[in-house]
Amino acid sequence: MIEVSNLTKRFGATTAVDDISFTVQPGKVTGFLGPNGAGKTTTMRAIAGLDLPTAGTSSVNGNRMNQHAFPMHELGVLLDANHIHHGRTAQAHLEALAATHGIGTKRVHEVLDLTGLADVARRRAGTFSLGMRQRLGIAAALLGDPASFILDEPINGLDPDGVVWVRTLLRRLAGEGRTVFLSSHLMSEMAQTADHLIVIGRGRLITDSSIQDVLGSGTDQSRVLVRATDPDRLAEALAAPGITVTRTATGGLEVTGLEAAAVSGAAAALGILLHELTTSTASLEEAYLSLTRSAVEYQTAPENQESTP
Ligand SMILES: Nc1ncnc2c1ncn2[C@@H]1O[C@H](COP(=O)(O)OP(=O)(O)OP(=O)(O)O)[C@@H](O)[C@H]1O
C-alpha cells in the first residue's frame, strides 16, 4: 500500500505538489493522471524517497522509504528509463543493482526472461531503443520482488506487443495482491489497464475514484446513436424536455436523455425501421478532459478560435 498525506513540494516559487493526500490500494492497478506539469513525477519521486517533500509525508507498505532496510524489496520503481549506465550490458546493470540488496544472479536471469530481454542481456544498454530501455527499467523494478510498484509512463516508447505485455504484467502483479501505481498520458491504455484513478492538476488532487465513476462523470449521460428509415419523424417523436436529438453528419440521430429501449419503442410505435441502435458511454479521454479542463497549465487554443485583433 502507498499512502500520501498532505504532501507538498515546492521548487523555489513553483509549488509542484500542493497538499495532496491519497492512498493507493493493494490488489488494484491505480492510474495517475494529470496534464503536463501537474506534479505526477514530483509526487512519485517523493514516494520513492528520491526527493524530500517540503511538507507532508508518504509511506510504502507502512513505512517511509528511508526507514526500509531493503527498499528494492518494498517498492519497484521505474521513473526514468534513461537512468542507466549506458556502457554496461543489461545484465551487468541488473547485477549491479541486485548486488546492493544481496539479490543473486538467478533472479537477474528471471527478470531478464520475464521482460523479454534474455536475448539482448549482453548488449550495452546504451544501444537500446526506448522500448528496450523501458523493459530494462521494468526488469529493475521487478528485481526485488516488491509488494508495491510505481511506474512513470512505463509504456512510453513500447510497440503494440510491448504495450499489451506491460498491461498483462501489471494486471498480474495486481492480481497477486500487489500495489501498482502508474502514470500514463495514453487514456485508451489507462482505460484498459487501471481499476482506479487518481487525477491531479496544478499540484492538487482532482479525483480519487474508480474508473467506472470517472467514466460516469465525464458527460452527463450516455448517448444513443440511431440510424432509421425516417429519422426526421423519429426525431420529432422523441423530442421532449430533457431529451436532446441531433442529426449526425452521416444522417443518423444522436439522442441523449433516453435509453436505447425507449428509442426503439418509439420507432416501433411509428412503424419506423431501425438499422442501427448503439449506446455509447463517455470515453476515458472525454471524462479526463472534462475533469482537468481548468487545470491545464499549457493549453492550446481551440482550432476554431478566432484571433482577436
Ligand atoms: N527539479 C525541479 N526544479 C524546478 N521545478 C521543477 C523541478 N521538478 C519539477 N518542477 C516543476 O514542478 C511542476 C510539476 O512537474 P512534474 O514533472 O512533477 O509534472 P508531471 O505531472 O510529471 O508533468 P509531465 O506530465 O509533463 O511529465 C512543473 O511546473 C515543473 O516545471
Automatic annotation (TrEMBL):
Cytoplasm in keyword set: no
Ranges of residues in domain ABC transporter: 2-227
Transmembrane segments: none
Pfam families xref list: ABC_tran (PF00005)
Tagged with keyword Cell membrane: no
InterPro entries recorded: AAA+_ATPase (IPR003593), ABC_transporter-like_ATP-bd (IPR003439), ABC_transporter-like_CS (IPR017871), P-loop_NTPase (IPR027417)
Keywords for the protein's UniProt record, in alphabetical order: ATP-binding, Nucleotide-binding, Transport
Signal sequence region: none
GO MF entries: ATP binding
Protein family per UniProt: Belongs to the ABC transporter superfamily.
Protein name: ATP-binding cassette domain-containing protein
Species, as recorded: Arthrobacter vasquezii
